[in-house]
Structures are given as C-alpha cells and as structure tokens.
Amino acid sequence: MRTGGRFRFRPCAGPLDLGDSAMPMFSPTFIQDIQQRSSIVELVRSHVQLHKKGATWKGLCPFHQEKTPSFVVNEARKSYHCFGCGKGGDAISFLRELEGLSFVEAVTELAQRAGVPLPKQEMSAQDAARASRRDKLHRANSIAARHFNKMLNSEDGAFARSYLAERGFDLEFANKAKLGLDPDSWDSLFGALRAAGIDPAIGEEAGLLVPKKGGRGHYDRFRNRLMFPITERGGRIVAFGGRTLGDDNAKYINSPESPIYNKSRALYGLHEARSAIHRADKVLVVEGYFDVLGLARAGVGFAVAPCGTALTEQQVRALAGHSPRDVIMLFDADTAGRKAAMRALPLCLEQGLWPSYLAVPDGKDPDDFAREHGAAGVEGLLQQARPLLDVFIEDSLPGPTDGAQAADESLMKLGPILALLKPVQQARSIREVARALAVDVQIVETIVRRAKTRARAERRSPAPSPRSGSRQAQANRPPSPSQAPQPTENRPGQGPPPPEDSDYFVGEESTPTNSDPQQLGGPELLGEPSPPQRQLVRLMIQDPAELSQLVEQLSVLEWLAHPEVERTVRRLLKAQREARLPQIGELTEGIGNPALRGDISAVLTSDDSWFPAESLETATRECMVRLRLEWMLRKRARLARDLGAQERSGSADPGVLLEIARQLNDLDRDVERARSHLSSL
Description:
Elements: H1 28-37, H2 40-45, E1 50-53, E2 56-59, E3 71-74, E4 79-82, E5 88-89, H3 91-99, H4 103-114, H5 125-152, H6 158-166, H7 171-176, E6 180-182, H8 188-195, H9 200-205, E7 209-211, E8 218-220, E9 225-231, E10 237-244, E11 252-254, E12 267-268, H10 270-280, E13 282-285, H11 289-297, E14 303-306, H12 313-320, E15 326-331, H13 335-350, E16 355-359, H14 366-382, E17 386-387, H15 388-396, H16 404-418, H17 423-437, H18 441-460, H19 471-475, H20 523-526, H21 531-542, H22 544-553, H23 563-577, H24 584-588, H25 594-605, H26 616-649, H27 654-680
Parallel strand pairs: 13-14, 13-15, 15-16
Antiparallel strand pairs: 1-2, 2-3, 3-4, 4-5, 6-9, 7-8, 9-10, 10-11, 12-14, 16-17
C-alpha cells in the first residue's frame, strides 16, 4: 500500500453559487487562486505569535485559552489545526472563525490581502447606479475621517487633545481609534470635501453637511465636536458620532440615516472588537463611545455600544452572528440603564443568546471604572454579572405590601418573557415565579400558554399600516404581553442558526443511503460518528488511491451510519476520480460535528496525525472489518425488531418468519467471523 504523498490542492469543478443573486459568485478557480497566492502563515501571524518547527509553525491557539502551544499552521497545505480544541481549516475559515466574517466577506478580505481583484459581476443599470452612489458616500466618509484626524493632530486640535488627555486617552491611542475633530468652523469639512471633488449633495446625503436656509450652499454638521467614526462589518466608515467640546445642548449628535447607514443595525466598535469577542467568547454591551474606548484602552477589547438608540433586534442579531457564550449588559446603575437592559432581554432570547446584567458600582461609567481598575478589575467585575432573566423576574415581582392586583400585573408582565424560554428553563422559572407570588404553578403555566397563543396570533396578523407607526419605533418599545415574539428553536447560549451562505459545494450528492430518521436530522440529532467511521476519513485523506478503491469495491458507503461521514467520503471519492485532493474547506463545508471537522483538519495539516507507514495496512483492514461489523449489528437489530413485530401480530406468514430467522442466523455467523478476524489482527 502507498503511504500517501504531498498534497496538491486543485479547484473542484463547477462555479460556486451562494444562492443570492445580490451576492458575488466565486468560482472554485478563483477561490483556489486566492488561497494559493495568500500566505496562511502571514495571515495567522497577524493574530498569533508563531514559531517555526520543521515544516510547520506552532503557536498558542487563538480560539481557546492555553499555556502550551498546540496550534499548527502548514503553509504548504494552506491549513491550520489546533490539537487542543480541535478547530482547523483554511485561510477563509480562519477569518470567518476568528473575525466573525461571512463567507463573502472573508473571500473579499483574502483577495484584497493577496492583491487579487474580485470577479466583476453583471448588474442592472439600477443596481449599478445604486452601487455607484454607495461608493461615493463611502468615499466622502473616508475623506471626512482623514480630515477629522488631521484636524485633531493640528494646532486647532490642542483643546480636543487636552480634553482626551483629561479622560486618559493619549494621542497615539486616539489615532489608533481613528478619532478626529471637526473644528469650530462652518466650512472646515465642506472645504476638504470640495477639494477632494466631492459633490456637496453627496456630503449632504452622507450626513456630513447641512444645506443652508434658502438652499444656497452647505455648512458642516459636526462643528466643534470630537468625532467617532462608525464602521460597518467590512470596516468601511458609514457614519460618525460627535461629542461637543462646547456648551451645546446636544452633548452627542450622530449622522442621520443614509443609504449606507442604518442606526438600528450599527454597533460602535463591533468591527474592531470581532477578534476579541471570539477569543474571549463574550461581548460587553455598554452605552457610550467612551465606554467602548475606555475598556479597550484597559485591554478589554470585546465591548460594543449602540449608536444613540436602545438596543435593537438588528443589533442583537449582529451580536448573535459572532456566537458569544456570554452577552453582558454593562450599563449605568441608574434606573434608565436598568430599563435599557430589561428591554434587551426578549431580543436576546429570540436570538438564542443568554444575557447577563451588570451595573458599574458607585455610579461610575465603565470608562471611569476601567481607567481606575484596569483589565483585571474589569474581569473581576464581570464575574459578578447575573442572568438578566433573574433580574427581570426580580424587578417584576410585587413588593411585600402590594395586593393581589399587583401580582396579576406581574404575571401579565412575566408571561411573554417566560414564553420565550425553552422547556427546561421555562419550567424552572415558572416554579420560581409561582413560589415568589404564592400561587399555583398551573396559574403561571396558563398565563405563559396564553402569551404563546397571543404571540402566535400576532405573527400571523398582517403587517401594521403606516398609520400605526414605524416598525423601528415598535421594535424599540418595551415588551408587552401582546407583543411577545414566538420562541425560536435556539436554546439560550447556543447562538443563532448557521449562516445560509454555502461555501464550497453546491448540488452534490449528500442524501444518506441509510433511511433511519435519526440519521436524517440536524447535527444535534446525529450523535457522534463511531471511531471506525472517523478512522475511515483519516485513512482516505492519507492514502486516497488505495482507500477509494476499497470503498468502491466493498460498497462501504452502505455501511456508514453517519450522514456527515458519508458526505465526506463521497467528496473524497469524487476528488480521487478527478485525480486531485480537495481543499480543506471542501471537506469541512456543511460538517457540523466538531470531532469529524477536527479529524479532517488535523490529518491535512500535520503528518504527525498520519498512521505510521508500517501499521497503515493493518489499520485499514481493521477499519474495514469494524465498519462491516457495525453495519451487520445494525441490520441484525432491525431484523430482530421485524421478527418480534411479526410474532406479536398473530397473523404472520410462516414463510416470512422462517426467512427472517434464516437471515438472523446467517448474520450471527458473519458477526462471529468478523469478531474472530478482529482478534487476530
């Protein structure tokens, strides 16, 4: 048998269609090109300190906390794998996992790093005009940001720099955060935009300029303000927040909405915090720009803030896209801060997030606390966070001197929230509420059921007319029993459903050959693939020619019980027929089982995961015998069930009973032979 050779990554056949006409279509050739032109070592080194070790590089894993390096990067094979937590993949999956990018965003960033132009997409005239308009708005914001930062560093910025210094921010940090200054002038930015050839109408549409009365000319919107750039997910500036440096009544003003900025979706600091969120597996939601910056200055880089709004459904959905284990509302200790956190509770539960609540002690802002106590103090404070549901229930319960009417009002307030919970947590919370209110559990259960029914009816009702107010205004109102959303299938802490964009394979054969309903469910229903099934995948990657021949000769696909293993084996067979080995992303796309994904990336990344050459043949024989043995035992169990059902029916055909019994006897002999064979290996 061959022991395998070096891997050659070649593109798979067919274009990559992401299923959305508005999304780019990346061909496998294009994906292959940017992968080969990109240095995965350099990409990873921008996040992780790596050291050369033979043909690979090692470092501390960015996906989990460890003291001994177990994270391996292989430049030749364009892959990485952590032997501690099991995560692995290629450059695209690294960007997606660490920075929370979508597939399109990861490919785009990798292409930009490699200097590869994106394929041009055909657009309608309307779409082309819209894209051109958006590009002009982005360019205007980019020019404005550079102008604001230039002003902060100029003589005119002395007062702003002094103000920042009083708050503990030096100029180096301010420049890194791209802070700026719009001077106390009517036309400072207007002049900069005009010099750059920006039409004032574009500056007005971007929210940077305001038309003068009478329509003659424009003036700067953010005069005499410290400027905070607001970025979108891809890092481009879409808007600004401005903090007055004078005595204006409005301490903060923000850009108005535009074709590139929706304040209900934007979160200040999210783009910059994405890597820290993934490393810490948590996100802090704070109230202000300075809170985000103050925490970042102290080394706590996973904080974000809404842009002048209460936390919205779209913003919570954006957080859920990063799948943090903990979402902590770190708001002011005043009543307004506590109420803001309570309004976020149903939004988080809908997205499968399990939020916590924490108030900064002594009435301080997070910025002040971080400046005084540093990262260690903040981390210690975070340990005191309480589940937001517990706080909500506590706030909703009546006082000891309140009467029965107050208890009824509490139940009506709690019902919609309890209706959002999954069964185990819901039952526990219902018992707690019943005990606190001294009522029967059945009463609380009835209120929760009614809340679910009302929510279901609300979801079926037509959308509100314009007269009923904007959808966003309704989304920002506190939850009421009639507005309680229907629970989703996500459990608290599990994060949102996986993204819908398909990464590599489209329209491949992926239907399991076995018809067991248990095997046809989602990853949570599949269970773990057995050791022989996992071993088959490892062997096929190491020795593709020999194993592919065996798999097809012995009809091994019929023996596989786990659909994701079968899907991977089909991909490996397809690649072998095309005389190539697939990219790591091809094998792991759509595979939800962490152990199987880890096996794939481990064998592709490091030869240390290969079977020794002297034991490869024995390992292959043992794998085949064990796979067939598993299949026979499953078949025997089905036949035994069929025989029992026939016997219990009382009207079974004797010939059918004899045939089933004969098959069982034959299987018993084959099972014993297989076990005997295993013992001799």
